[in-house]
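re: the backbone from monday

yeah here it is again, tokenized this time
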């Protein structure tokens, strides 16, 4: 379940790396990951590119459990301005969902939990346009 502390709205970023660092810090602040997890996410982005831009406007950065996952869960951040992550089909990104999983099974469970949002363009658009935390929380917890 997502709460207000798991959400950051209209965050100013100047690069994909900055967005990854900011969503990672939100994860650290919520006790989901250790700071080393942020480095893991950055390393994966640098090595494999923007494969985690899953649908138009939405990126879901994550790292491996051994990179510092403490708890399985996720946070959500909307960007002040859409940002190109380098994905040919799904750029620009307006929503960044930081995900942590303590093992492969939890990773799959997180993806399944988010599928209702990821597969629903209307929900994604509503999150992009949200101005208040309760709007995002309601959409994510439906």
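seq for it, each position gets an aa:
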């Amino acid at each position: 379940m997502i709460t207000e502390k798991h959400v950051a709205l209209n965050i100013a970023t100047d690069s994909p790396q900055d967005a990854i660092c900011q969503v990672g810090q939100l994860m650290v602040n919520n006790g989901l990951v250790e700071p080393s997890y942020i480095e893991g996410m950055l390393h994966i982005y640098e090595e494999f590119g923007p494969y985690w831009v899953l649908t138009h406007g939405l990126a879901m950065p994550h790292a491996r459990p051994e990179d510092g996952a403490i708890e399985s869960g996720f946070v959500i951040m909307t960007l002040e301005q859409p940002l190109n992550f380098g994905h040919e089909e799904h750029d620009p990104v307006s929503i960044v969902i930081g995900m942590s999983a303590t093992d492969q099974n939890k990773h799959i469970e997180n993806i399944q939990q988010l599928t209702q949002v990821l597969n629903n363009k209307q929900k994604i658009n509503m999150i992009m346009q949200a101005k208040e935390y309760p709007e995002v929380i309601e959409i994510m917890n439906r």
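The helical segments are 16-29, 36-48, 104-118, 121-129, 133-141. The two ends are 10 Å apart (CA to CA).
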